[in-house]
């Protein structure tokens, strides 16, 4: 899109206010930490010490509100340590202007590289640059520098201690993540009743998997309700899709379709009840009507063929969901639970080493599940080698993270020099704006830039008016600053514009504690923020890192991952008796379907990368005309639809994996090998903007059709393979027209 339109879109997006769940108790706890630190230092020390210590408590509190699954006390302590080190190192170099500028640029570069570890690390690292800019302006000695660093660290320790002493809804975020995943599958089941090809967004499942990773200490303390359900939700999804699909399930009209709709609705009711119980930490209450539907009718099965097999698996999975409840299950009216004998396949819960639950449908008798295992989350010390590997991997000119780090370093150094050359006392606000605004991509940088400017105008206007009318003493200014922080913590998830309003007011009130005149502070804050934002936006425009050229690479990676998923599933039909092997050819640990699970996770990760790149590319103001970058918005949408269909066809096939004693289907293996041989060339063709050729896949499919020509109806594997071939052809057409 044109530059003016792109800037307008990002400005509207940055200034918009989002609806979000508010957590008043969490906000009050964070504000209490700031109040304790500021109040004590103001009482026992000086206003300058109060201002310095406030940054530690404030920034550590912000770190605890980031979207991270690490323990909140750990986040607060980690942020406090980084802030303290940054403060002390900055004081050591503050007396030498050239040395300080070089140190500041290096620190900003390292903070930019921290985005390679994730958004939380990037935000916390950016705050260390901000505190270096602010606290070094306070005159002090070497011992005073140590005192400032200690006070900042103490602010983080206070926040961590409050989290431990005043817990608010322990495990609440993990409960919400797991409940959201189950609710997403329930919503999917309801949509399938009316649209058998309804899409499914895997984001809630990916979030739940991230939330399931815990340290060994957390694993010992984790509520029993949080173990096992995620694996059940994973296994529900392909069964639901297979049951609803008219190609491999029941026909679109007739008695069988009505039975399918009843089963889908009942399964959604059970999943919703389970999600509600997990979210609230209550017993699972399941309506009797739903359990009535989820059993074999007394008159006999209504469904036949693959649809009946999928229905029986759905009934068995629902029973497992009931039995997996660690708290007592309460039915809304008296109703006996369905006995195991009514199910087609008694299932055994077999937990793999990553915490996922798999079902061994070959087990003749139900067995007791083994002790729960969990996804391991490394400690902060264990992250050090990961961080070093990430740093080495991203330290190349073509890396968007490295280019972002260079941009931040240059912009911070330039605005710091400009701020020192200009008359205002608080010239550091310009580089501080840069480091808080700049992000690795265009859309977020420009959104935050406009949000920062608009929010600052409103925030300092409100704070200036209040200060001008009331003329509060230092204690009053401190109380107003804490109130601003409380509102910021409360409204942080509603958008960066609201956050900037609260931060703008907080800065004015906090500097009022140190005796700064509000009239001077307000004007300086506004135009220095505008200066820093303008430099950040200009530097990104001059030295960008566009996402549009990466679309083809992301699409090729997604196709490769989805094709590997399809190959792994088809290989089970060709060799049902052999355990699946891992990527190195050795038998996979855990369940024989381990290879399929790993391929599915790779597919989801590749899709997430594609979604992020496509979303950011859609907001960029340039059109790349090179041969390797031609992929129009319509072509990208068509290609996305084709790859999603490819994954959906594989999911339908996964719901009908054969038993170990089933007859092998050699043509499924031939089709899988043809697909496996074709994928590398297809991925490279997408990257090179060349035509895709899936002729070997179509030839293998034709031979398969000839083999089953005399059968009364084609097998589920063949029908799914036909859907796979059609999706590949749609992909070739979409990419060819790009």
UniProtKB/TrEMBL annotation:
Membrane topology: Multi-pass membrane protein
Residues annotated as domain Integral membrane protein YccS N-terminal: 81-190
Membrane-spanning ranges: 21-43, 124-143, 149-168, 449-469, 498-520, 526-546
Keyword entries, A-Z: Cell membrane, Membrane, Transmembrane, Transmembrane helix
Integral membrane bound transporter domain sequence ranges: 415-539
Region (Disordered): 608-631
Keyword check for Zinc: no
InterPro entries: Memb_transporter_dom, YccS_N
One term under GO cellular component: plasma membrane
Main location: membrane
Subcellular location(s) per record: Cell membrane
Cited Pfam families: FUSC-like, FUSC_2
PANTHER family: MULTIDRUG RESISTANCE PROTEIN MDTO, P-HYDROXYBENZOIC ACID EFFLUX PUMP SUBUNIT-RELATED
Entry similarity comment: Belongs to the YccS/YhfK family.
Official protein name in the record: Uncharacterized protein
